[in-house]
């Protein structure tokens, strides 16, 4: 141990450009270190202790990075919050995570302040980046505080919220390691070395997606601890991605298949305009990538495309360019520290080539859904856990995904759970019954469809559909709204009342390969 970890690297080379904001502002490592240290001193004066949590509602860039770097050296949990959420959804996470401080960026002030009020957090613990009436400027925490290394440094962790299948999201919380923060960061770099990624200041990591996603924080944070410069994007754009790759000589990034589809759709002359020779490890995940799309990316970018399958809860697989080309469509083989188990309905292992529920385990890594022991235990099989996906292994141990977790919708790489949307739609007085599921979408993978049985005496119409959708305003993030509503006279239900969702869903998937 001893050469990696942001804090060590920043002390050794304070002039290293560690981060570049979406507007092009460069941040020296020494300045970021000083900001993170001052924040630790300020929050400790506020009474924060080892094991406490903080939340941030901040866009991609240095402000969120400072929160992350402060928490990870002070023994705190840091929860970055999805900025598409509405006030009540934000408030739930701030309250549930038991945050002792909440940071809101001026861009997200309106919903952020609604969330703060909803959560019950003391108003003097709500801090603002920028100008937010009703929150304390972050400067009040940091000004006059020393930039020196805090005493008693110990590794913190991120605690991301994973959308719960039954509605409310759950925080995935791991026990704190008690390690020195730099040693813990160096252990984290194992994840990137699986892909062959090397440490060094010549490397540049492009952050293409919002930092509230687990993988984005993990990959970006780990790249930083290896000495890579982080280049942040604000809103993803295909040509801008190519421009940044050329300008900053990007070597690695983390993407989703939706990004690939949009990149491939650029005119040939635009694609040819940019020098992408620096790309070495372009990693993708979060949704199955159609085989033709991935072949096209290999033809354009060469053998720098890696894929993995994993979950916030831990464990996973990796598909190298060679492995994927040997078995197109695979999501790869288990990580060295991970194990896969495919079981049938009776939780018995299935033979090679037979689909079953995928269970994973990561050696030496425990987690729990915060405050929900029952949910944690329900997902476990001895020391393996599942997120409910279905797949099979071939004779060489390569994993293929067959179908999604029972009903989860994956749209543009984001997991969307129908139950939460159904619960909100059911509240409408003109809705008698409702089912929400994913239907094919060429760009996003899946889009959200709602099928509604109107309440007795209510006549279906486009106006009714618009009225029902509008009732979600302020209650449910826009990205969770159904893209369209179809009406049905009567829902197909079993005698015991169980909804036959497949019956509703199948006609939309006709002619599509559902088993991606």
Task: Describe the protein's architecture and organization.
With 516 residues, the chain is an alpha/beta fold. It folds into four domains: 174 residues, Rossmann fold, CATH 3.40.50.980; 122 residues, Rossmann fold, CATH 3.40.50; 74 residues, Luciferase, domain 3 (Roll); 101 residues, GMP Synthetase, Chain A, domain 3 (2-Layer Sandwich), CATH 3.30.300.30. The protein is 31% helix and 24% strand. The protein contains 18 helices and 29 strands. The strands form seven sheets. Strands 2-1-12-11-13-14-15-16-17 form a nine-stranded mixed beta sheet, sandwiched between helices. It has a six-stranded parallel beta sheet with strand order 7-6-5-3-4-8, sandwiched between helices. It is globular and about 65 Å long.
SSE layout and pairing:
Elements: H1 6-12, E1 17-20, E2 26-28, H2 29-45, E3 53-57, H3 62-74, E4 77-80, H4 87-96, E5 99-105, H5 109-119, E6 126-129, E7 136-137, H6 139-142, E8 157-158, E9 161-162, E10 170-173, H7 181-188, H8 190-193, E11 204-207, H9 214-225, E12 229-232, H10 238-248, E13 252-255, H11 257-264, H12 268-273, E14 281-284, H13 291-301, E15 305-310, E16 316-319, H14 321-326, E17 333-334, E18 338-343, E19 356-362, E20 368-369, H15 373-378, E21 380-381, E22 384-385, E23 390-393, E24 399-403, E25 409-411, E26 414-416, H16 418-426, E27 431-441, E28 445-454, H17 462-470, E29 484-487, H18 501-509
Domain AMP-dependent synthetase/ligase: 7-369
InterPro entries: AMP-bd_C (IPR025110), AMP-bd_C_sf (IPR045851), AMP-binding_CS (IPR020845), AMP-dep_synth/lig_dom (IPR000873), ANL_N_sf (IPR042099)
Organism: Streptosporangium fragile
């Amino acid at each position: 141990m001893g050469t990696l970890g942001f804090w060590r690297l920043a002390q050794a080379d304070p002039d290293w450009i560690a981060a570049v904001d979406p507007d092009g502002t460069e941040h020296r490592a020494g300045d970021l270190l000083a900001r993170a240290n001052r924040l630790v001193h300020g929050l400790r004066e506020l009474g924060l202790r080892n094991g406490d949590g903080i939340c941030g509602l901040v866009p991609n860039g240095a402000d969120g990075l400072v929160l992350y770097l402060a928490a990870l050296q002070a023994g705190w949990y840091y929860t970055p919050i999805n900025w598409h959420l509405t006030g009540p959804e934000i408030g739930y996470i701030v309250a549930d995570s038991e945050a002792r401080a909440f940071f809101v960026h001026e861009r997200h002030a309106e919903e952020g302040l609604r969330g703060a009020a909803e959560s019950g957090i003391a108003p003097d613990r709500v801090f603002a980046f920028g100008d937010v009436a009703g929150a304390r400027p972050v400067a009040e925490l940091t000004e006059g505080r020393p930039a020196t290394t805090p005493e008693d440094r110990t590794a913190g962790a991120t605690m991301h919220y994973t959308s719960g299948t039954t509605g409310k999201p759950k925080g995935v919380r791991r026990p704190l390691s008690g390690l020195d923060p730099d040693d813990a960061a160096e252990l984290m770099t194992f994840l990137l070395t699986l892909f062959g990624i090397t440490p060094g200041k010549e490397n540049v990591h492009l952050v293409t997606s919002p930092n509230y996603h687990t993988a984005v924080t993990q990959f970006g944070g780990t790249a930083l601890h290896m000495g890579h410069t982080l280049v942040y994007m604000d809103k993803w754009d295909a040509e801008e991605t190519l421009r940044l790759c050329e300008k900053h000589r990007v070597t690695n990034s983390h993407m989703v298949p939706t990004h690939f589809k949009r990149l491939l759709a650029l005119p040939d002359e635009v694609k040819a305009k940019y020098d992408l020779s620096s790309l070495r490890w372009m990693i993708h995940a979060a949704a199955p990538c159609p085989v033709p799309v991935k072949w096209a990316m290999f033809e354009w970018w060469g053998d720098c495309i890696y894929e993995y399958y994993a979950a916030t809860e831990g464990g996973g697989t990796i598909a190298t360019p060679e492995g994927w080309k040997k078995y197109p469509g695979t999501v790869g083989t288990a990580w060295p520290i991970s194990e896969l188990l495919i079981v049938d309905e009776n939780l018995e292992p299935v033979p090679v080539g037979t689909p079953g529920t995928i269970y994973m385990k990561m050696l030496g890594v425990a987690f729990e859904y915060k405050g929900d022991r029952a949910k944690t235990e329900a997902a476990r099989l001895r020391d393996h856990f599942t997120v409910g996906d279905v797949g099979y292994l071939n004779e060489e141990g390569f994993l293929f995904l067959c179908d999604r977790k029972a009903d989860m919708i994956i749209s543009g790489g984001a997991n969307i759970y129908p139950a939460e949307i159904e619960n909100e739609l059911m509240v409408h007085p003109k809705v008698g019954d409702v089912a929400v599921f994913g239907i094919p979408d060429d760009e996003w993978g899946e889009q959200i469809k709602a099928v509604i049985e109107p309440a007795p005496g209510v006549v279906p119409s486009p106006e009714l559909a618009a009225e029902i959708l509008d009732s979600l305003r302020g209650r449910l993030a826009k990205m969770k709204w159904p893209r369209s509503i179809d009406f049905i006279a009567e829902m197909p239900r079993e005698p015991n009342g169980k909804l036959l969702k497949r019956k509703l869903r199948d006609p939309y998937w006709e002619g599509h390969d559902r088993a991606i």
